[in-house]
Amino acid sequence: MSQQASLYEQLGGEAAVNAAVDIFYRKVLSDDRISAFFDGVDMDTQAAKQKAFLTMAFGGPHNYTGLDMRQGHAHLVERGLNDSHVDAVIEDLGATLRELGVKEELIAQVAAIAESTRNDVLGR
Q1: What is the mean pLDDT of the segment spanning 68-87?
Q2: Helices and strands (DSSP H and E) totals, the chain
Q3: Is 39 left (phi over 0), alpha (psi -120 to 50) or beta?
């Protein structure tokens, strides 16, 4: 195979993304720094959106139709979402991937993708 596998493939494809999102939201919902932002959120719908988004962000086959990062988080910025909350999300994502046995070099790539959305998420 002459073409390098996408990050999506290197992480393990759909099954890996599904497992990661499920573990990630368990961590997020038990994280006092950010759990309040998910009060009243339909977590099944949220998880499905996140799975579709991460599949796209990691270079997998995608049909993500959600709002862009700026629109999707504007209501949370109004509620005080800031850099410390983005840091917590990236930290929880890294911990999730470590729990799944993902190599540090891939975790660093995932963190870089997450970091690249920071300004849009925070509406800057």
Answers
A1: 94
A2: 7, 0
A3: beta
Residue type, 12: G
Cβ atoms of residues 123 and 81 within 8 Å: no
Q: Is 40 left (phi over 0), alpha (psi -120 to 50) or beta?
A: left
Rg (C-alpha) for the chain, rounded Å, is: 14
Mean pLDDT to the nearest integer, 46-59: 90
* CA-to-CA separations, 66 to 5, 11, 27, in angstroms, rounded: 25, 23, 23
Please name the amino acid found at residue 32. D
Side-chain-side CA neighbours of residue 119 (13 Å): 2
